[in-house]
Design a protein that fits this description.
The chain is mainly β. It contains two helices and ten strands, in the order ββββββββββαα. The N terminus and C terminus are likely disordered.
């Protein structure tokens, strides 16, 4: 009797990789994702705009007008006033960075910030044609974390003020 031995070539406890960096230069990157999405967020000095057109997401962004410290989300203390339609939102806020943005359209995605910012891109990245040399050397490296891109729908804020 011969024993048949099988080996796993992957770790079942690790979630499958869903994205990778295609090209990056210091404070901006572009990549690919296996998840389909349509969302984005841009920030320039004191203006921020966000959009979210994804199936299954209801009240993803602000619906109506929210102004003043008590009406605006407690987790975002820099926001002074928001105006939104649920799928898009404009915010007047205290400046946090000079220029930053993140986007995900269909299977393409990207983010950047100048200066570097923890919500968009926290550390420099260098890559070309899916070969990354900074912060780590890798082929098809996963995209850096970007809380700005996927943080909006977690708050589910619906505020209307007349």
């Amino acid at each position: 009797d011969r024993e048949i031995r099988t080996e796993r070539f992957y770790d079942t406890n690790t979630p499958p990789r869903t994205n990778c960096v295609f090209k990056a230069f210091f404070c901006v990157y572009q990549g690919f994702s296996t998840q389909i999405g349509c969302r984005g967020r841009q920030e320039c000095c004191c203006w921020q705009k966000s959009l979210c057109f994804e199936a299954g997401r209801q009240d993803c962004l602000t619906v109506g007008v929210a102004c003043g410290d008590h009406d605006v989300d407690d987790n975002d203390t820099g926001a002074l006033c928001r105006i939104g339609l649920g799928c898009c939102e404009w915010t007047l806020r205290r400046p946090r960075t000079c220029c930053a943005g993140a986007w995900h359209l269909l299977c393409c995605m990207g983010a950047g910030a100048f200066p570097l910012h923890k919500e968009y891109l926290a550390e420099p990245v260098f890559a070309l044609y899916c070969v990354q040399c900074c912060p780590d050397c890798a082929v098809a490296a996963p995209t850096p974390p970007c809380p700005a891109l996927y943080g909006d729908c977690d708050r589910s804020m619906v505020a209307v003020q007349t």
